[in-house]
Specification:
- The protein is of the alpha/beta class.
- Helices cover 31% and strands 26% of the residues.
- The chain contains ten helices and 17 strands.
- Strands 1, 2, 8, 9, 10, 11 and 17 form a seven-stranded mixed β-sheet that branches.
- The longest helix has 19 residues.
- The protein is globular and about 60 Å long.
Amino acid sequence: GVWRPMEARNCVPVLTPRQEMTQKYDCIVVGAGVAGACVGAVLGRQGRSVLVLERNLEEPDRIVGELLQPGGLHALERMGLGECVKGIDGVTNDGYAIFYEGKEAVLPYPTNPVTGKPFHGASFHHGRFVMKLRQACAAQASVHLRQGTVVELIEKDDRVVGVRYREDGKLNEAHAHLTWVCDGAFSKFRKSMSTDFQPVVDSTFVGVELHGLSLPYPNKGHVLLIHPSPALAYQIGSNDIRVLVDVPPSYNKGGGKNISNYLLSHIAPQMPGSMREAFVSAVKQNYRARGNLSMTARPVLRPGAVLLGDSFNMRHPLTGGGMTVAFSDIEVLTGLLADVKNLSNHISVTRALKVFYERRKGLASTINILAQALYAVFSESEENEEAWRQMREVRGLVHAHLFDQQHPPLRDVSFT
């Protein structure tokens, strides 16, 4: 049935009895996570008829996609979706605190030259944010948000013309001029769109949630430059803190009990004193792991379809830039396509896509390179001692600029 917006954020979506409706749309969106729900909402606001299909419309529970940098928040606001970060017990972020070898440094976001106020981002429980995006999506009169599992892209004459999806045990078919594949990091349809994409597992994030604790620096993301690779800590609610510990492949052998022992014996002693006891307690109660994937974006000019979000491009989540790239991509592409009245016009859509692939390079490549480079700098590699020696030299330079009073402070802080 068609999913309707909810008043209470923790309710399971109410499915109304299925209504007869045409199975022909301007657009079909595969997936209603961060990217897909945003795409559906924006297309609906443009007056497009849209079918958004999500296999599970219950509130998701993930340990990533919780921190939105200023650039991503501004893109969301420009698309008219800024309210989605409100009313979910989220937290405003205004910079970072860096911890390294017993020393600390605070890096506030720079000032917006237009408003004269500091830039700021937001952090929140991932699931609550996604549910607000879905509400905004479903609120559009021309959008149908349905709980169904897409099983196949329908092709005709080398063009994607729609999807087959399973809903309530029944196989259905829907057609559209343009299908937006936004089914996430482990996309089922990426390969059918292009064989050029090669996801790589960089490391593993192990996440725990701390409650009733204050971070050393409120409203700051905390970067802990510990051995052998960094950890992150940030608020996701008024009384909730997320801690993510990066575990390199060479330290992630055996899983389960070995990871727990590693966190307790190796990572806990390096945690700031005010967080250590709560971290140990959280690890003993429950922790979750997720592979950190990176994947270079490739232009895809597949008639009738487009890839966006983690289906299209990924980078190490150390810098929290993933949602910024996704929202920026959505803003640019939907803006370019807004003037294309008929999305079945392959020539016009292809022209817009070519402009999109060029226009996205500046922001996306900056965030992607920064994420991969910083992770390389602050992570040890047992497999390449020479590379690690060079990285330690870079670490020394960073340490000097952040903590050594004999060096000038870093005045211009890049943010994503």
